[in-house]
UniProtKB/TrEMBL annotation:
Keywords, alphabetical: DNA recombination
Protein name listed in UniProt: Integrase
GO biological process annotation, one example: DNA recombination
SUPFAM superfamilies xref list: DNA breaking-rejoining enzymes
UniProt lineage: Bacteria, Bacillati, Actinomycetota, Actinomycetes, Streptosporangiales
GO molecular function per UniProt: DNA binding
Residues annotated as domain Tyr recombinase: 1-131
Length: 142
């Protein structure tokens, strides 16, 4: 059964723009050019235009993982569920140095929730932060 609801804690018709890199944009545009969308705008649908059931997503996702990942990655927890890609996307943005306030807005979280869930994603980068601080203070020798 497909959920028909708005974003959590927001008006039903609220939208949240989330930028994505140009390569996935090109892939999505190619998919839409080739297959179109359902009348309600959905990208993925049954052959007759109906709503895909959760089990169809699960089977397709499992097959895609086997094609796209190495055998050891398939055995790992990497992208076990499609929802895991959300975590990966948020983690990537934080790891790239995008400010937590911006990432939180795109993810639909408060900064507090974002950092509680994803704080470990920015661990191990002390050398990066030290370099940024040195450059901000005008010490290019770092």
């Amino acid at each position: 059964m497909q959920e028909d609801r708005g974003l959590k804690g927001r008006p039903r018709r609220a939208k949240r723009p989330v930028p994505i890199p140009s390569e996935p944009v090109a892939i999505l545009r190619g998919h839409i050019a080739r297959y179109g969308t359902a009348p309600d705008g959905r990208l993925f649908r049954t052959e007759r235009g109906g709503v895909l059931q959760a089990s169809a997503y699960s089977r397709t996702w499992e097959a895609a993982r086997c094609l796209a990942l190495t055998p050891s990655q398939v055995e790992s927890e990497s992208a076990r569920r499609p929802y895991d890609l959300r975590h990966a996307g948020v983690s990537l943005r934080l790891d790239a140095g995008i400010p937590a306030t911006q990432v939180a807005e795109w993810a639909g979280h408060s900064v507090e929730v974002l950092l509680k869930i994803y704080a470990k994603c920015v661990d191990g980068h002390d050398h990066v932060w030290h370099g940024m601080l040195d450059r901000a203070l005008g010490d290019d020798a770092g």
